[in-house]
Write a structure and sequence with these properties.
Blueprint lengths: L7 E12 L5 E26 L2 E13 L9 E4 L2 E10 L6 E9 L1
Antiparallel strand pairs: 1-2, 1-4, 2-3, 3-6, 4-5, 5-6
Length: about 110
């Protein structure tokens, strides 16, 4: 990974989960997990018709240096954009680089 590719400052957030009166686990908010430099690479985009409206979906790969503890239930915030993490890939299991496969929330 070239250092010059990591030009986007992103924040990875984790959900805060609490139990309600009935005992169900619900998500109440998001908490910052870490802020790192990253490369954001759009891979695919599409528009689809659902529930009487047109929706857009963009799939992206976000590359960062290795950081333990990142899970698919987390999300990435870049400026006003929000990406839901679909999978976390430790490239070649070398603990040097992570690829976050994400869907952008539009």
């Amino acid at each position: 990974m070239k250092i010059g590719d990591l030009r986007h400052r992103i924040t990875i957030q984790q959900p805060i989960e609490i139990r309600n009166e009935v005992g169900e686990v619900i998500q109440s908010a998001w908490q910052d997990f870490t802020t790192v430099w990253a490369a954001i690479e759009p891979l695919r985009g599409r528009e689809y018709f659902d529930a009487q409206q047109i929706n857009a979906e963009v799939t992206s790969r976000i590359r960062i240096r290795y950081r333990p503890g990142i899970k698919p239930k987390m999300r990435v915030v870049y400026g006003e954009r929000i990406f839901d993490i679909q999978s976390v890939i430790d490239v070649e299991e070398r603990h040097k680089e992570i690829h976050l496969m994400c869907k952008e929330v539009i």
